[in-house]
From TrEMBL:
Signal peptide: none annotated. GO terms for biological process: G protein-coupled receptor signaling pathway. This is PI3R6 kinase. One of its GO terms (molecular function) is kinase activity.
Length: 505
């Protein structure tokens, strides 16, 4: 009861802040939702209590026509539900029915309701699916049944933000990246899926110890089995999925009696921190380069072997582009007598066509060049959509094949830190990207690109550094977003002065 009352008090304080009633302590402004998320992440066993409270508040907001409560509460609910070790089916059904009722409302309520209703339908059929899909996509784990990938790119202009903020963010993101390994993320997926399926009968402590003792290859094999079972549960009953996961559990721990599980309640498995890359925006084409390198691992399957080499992970983009050893060499051209017209080629019954050595095309006098990831990108850009580089040209007079639609398997979330000036730089970079895509489509056909803005102002900026404008005048876009969205105002805009303070702590 004490835990439930504490969570209810936090949720009510969050709703009061959405109404514009800020807490008396100014340091708590904008931090209520993030502290609530941190509390759930540290103790996932309280997730079921928070889900029940949020469902009641959503239903109360629906009855009272308090629509500005719905989207913030729904986002928090889904974030909690993903990490929850086990949610009763009747509670999931209430959330699912609420999301379906949102379809009668205008945008954005109907859009978010449809998205979350489809996710809940998948989760109810196979508990733990949303968790493993989130971890797989955010950490680019190898998975054939679910090949989607996501990455967060943080761009900060070093000329606009103090060096202390840039260095603090760079060190924090790098430390978070090094603290997590693919094997650890796979173990989290296996642990959460087995506990979601088995409930109280899952010995979570013995399972974690067993996974830590396994080799990375065995952990990946177990991970692939769990993912295949969850993704293949579309046409099967829930009992069959539970039986498959239970066999994997018994294969790890052996025949464990039901009474040997620790009676400490459901422990839960927090979500690992997503894969975040921090970049100091020093080049005009840096945004396009980073997005192209993000697509590079997926492109290797359809490139020649000469371009299939991965670059060293520690190499910078400037080294990738400039590391070419052929710039100082002489170039020689070979005159070709081939007209390139199909009817001018020798027929099959001519003697020259029977000799494979003479009919084979050769490239002479070429210069060997060290392959780079962006070379592979250029090669893929020249290939029509739906065709691989090695496909033969169609015969003369044959009907053209309709190009198949490309599936966007990558999602790039670009977060911009700064004031309106960094948004102006984004507009220039995005205009250059669109011009490049107008000449040859590549990124926009394969990548779901999303932009986010977090306003950050230095602690005591000088008037000369701001170009004669006040701090409020340099955050007009963030102010407009705050007036249009109360959640953005209370959770994002209020952090613009806190982030510089956190960087100096």
């Amino acid at each position: 009861a004490e835990v439930e009352s504490d969570i209810l008090r936090r949720v009510r304080a969050l709703l009061r802040e959405l109404d514009g009633h800020h807490p008396s302590c100014q340091s708590d402004r904008g931090m209520l939702r993030w502290t609530l998320h941190k509390k759930i992440q540290q103790n996932p066993s309280t997730s079921c209590v928070l889900v029940r409270i949020l469902v009641k508040e959503l239903e109360r907001a629906e009855r009272g026509d308090l629509r500005h409560y719905i989207i913030p509460l729904l986002h928090t609910l889904m974030y909690t539900l993903i990490q929850a070790p086990c949610i009763p089916d009747e509670l999931c059904a209430r959330v699912y029915d609420f999301c379906k009722r949102l379809l009668t409302l205008p945008k954005p309520f109907c859009t978010i309701g449809l998205e979350y209703a489809s996710r809940l339908q998948v989760e109810r059929r196979a508990p733990g699916t949303l968790y493993h899909r989130t971890v797989i996509s955010e950490h680019s784990l190898p998975s054939a049944p679910f090949p989607y990938q996501e990455r967060i790119f943080i761009f900060a202009d070093p000329e606009l933000l103090p060096e202390a903020i840039c260095q603090a963010l760079l060190s924090d993101t790098e430390a978070a990246r090094l603290a997590q390994s693919p094997g650890g993320c796979m173990s989290c997926v296996v642990t959460h899926a087995l506990q979601a399926a088995l409930g109280d009968s899952c010995d979570i402590h013995s399972l974690r110890a067993r996974l830590q003792a396994l080799s990375p290859r065995d952990v990946e094999r177990c991970f692939q089995q769990v993912v295949a079972a969850l993704e293949g549960a579309a046409g099967s009953e829930r009992g069959q999925l539970t039986a498959r996961l239970e066999s994997i559990y018994r294969g790890l721990l052996g025949s464990v009696p039901a009474g040997n599980a620790a009676r400490e309640g459901l422990q839960g498995t927090p979500l690992p921190n997503p894969n975040i890359s921090f970049h100091l925006w020093t080049e005009d084409e840096q945004l396009w380069k980073e997005l192209a390198l993000f697509l590079r691992p997926l492109s290797q399957s359809c490139e020649p072997e000469s371009l299939g080499q991965e670059p060293d992970g520690a190499a910078e983009v400037q080294d990738i582009l400039g590391d070419c050893d052929c710039c100082g060499q002489s170039r020689f051209s070979v005159l070709s007598t081939d007209s390139g017209i199909e009817r001018d080629l020798p027929a099959q019954d001519e003697p020259c066509a029977a000799d494979p050595e003479r009919s084979r095309l050769h490239r002479k006098g070429g210069i060997k060049k060290k392959p780079s990831p962006l070379d592979g990108v250029a090669l893929l850009q020249a290939v029509p959509a739906g065709k691989g580089p090695g496909k033969a040209p169609r015969a003369s007079g044959a009907a053209p094949e309709p190009p198949g639609p490309l599936q966007r398997l990558h999602t790039a979330r670009v977060v911009l830190l700064g004031d309106d000036r960094v948004l102006g730089r984004l507009a220039q970079a995005f205009h250059s990207l669109r011009k490049r895509e107008a000449r040859r489509v590549f990124l926009t056909a394969r990548l779901d690109l999303q932009f986010y803005h977090i306003p950050v102002l230095p602690g005591q900026p000088s008037v000369s550094a701001l170009g004669g404008a006040g701090p409020e005048e340099l955050c007009e876009v963030a102010g407009y977003l705050g007036r249009a969205d109360p959640w953005y105002e209370s959770n994002i805009n209020t952090l613009c002065h806190i982030i510089p303070k956190l960087a100096t702590m």
